[in-house]
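Schema walk-through. Below, the input block comes first and the output block second. Nothing else is stored per chain. Lengths vary across the set, and this one has 324 residues.
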Amino acid sequence: MSEPRVYIVVLNWNGSSDTAACVQSALQLDHPNYVVLVCDNDSRPDDLAALRTWGAGLPQGLPEAGPGQWHKLPDLAHRQVMLLHTGANLGFAGGVNVGLRFALLQGDADFAWVLNNDSEVHPGALSALLRRAVQDLRIGLCGSTLVYHGRRNMVQALGGASYEPWRGRSRALGAFSAPEAAPANPAEIEARMDYVVGASMLVSRRFLDTVGVMDDRYFLYSEEHDWAHRGQQQGFALGWAPDSLVFHKHGATIGSSSQGGSPLSLFYLFRAKAMFSGRHYPLRTPVVLCSLALDALKFLVKGSPARALAALRGLLAFPTGARY
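--- output ---
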């Protein structure tokens, strides 16, 4: 029996240095059957040039394909890295969806692994995800143990997060604990998981065929929550692979790692939280909007009116889908 074919989807937007480090770590994976798809969201010319220079040093080079050139390729070898141009800044979900659709088009994808470009992976990370996924065939999305890249003794999330639908707030499971303190039984975490954190998501072919790709109307944030929620509504379970270690820099691209978040990241974060509630918990949305508005106003108390304004603008934008 052949090993599952996996397409690893990494989104790049003006982050060639992080992307190169991420892919280099992925090329050390011990799983014997995968392809890496770097989806570029219309990065600056200098960033693309840096990506191409790095790609020229890969054993098989860095072949490229643009919009209208996404077709079935019969000779994609193991550990092949491809650069797919999305043609515009489509946001996280839109850019990743390009890679997912390309993988499905190849006809041989058993799984896709969505991996943030600001992460690096342990050589056994993918094998661990696959082991958990085949242990329970109900699992459509499976998460990793996310550890802070700069503090590898501290967990960012054990696979996913829980959600409070009356407040519109999420809580990463196991956050700030030590990796060795994580439960040995995945079921202990999976029982509390409402979605898999988007920095590392293994998705099955059956999930993609049934649920489809992510909803790109979110642009940034909550797209993975929406994806998981839709999957659960169609009978899929969420999984966590404790031994799948992913070292995440957390918010390097858009600045959400800065203290309190950048105004850009806060606009999309608050917009996405309101959109998710409006679509899946409409009767609770007025309460959620009030709760989120109070959260936004707290930035004023902290002396950051720009952040407060960006968050409030995000709340006002959600009914129309307006972007920053």
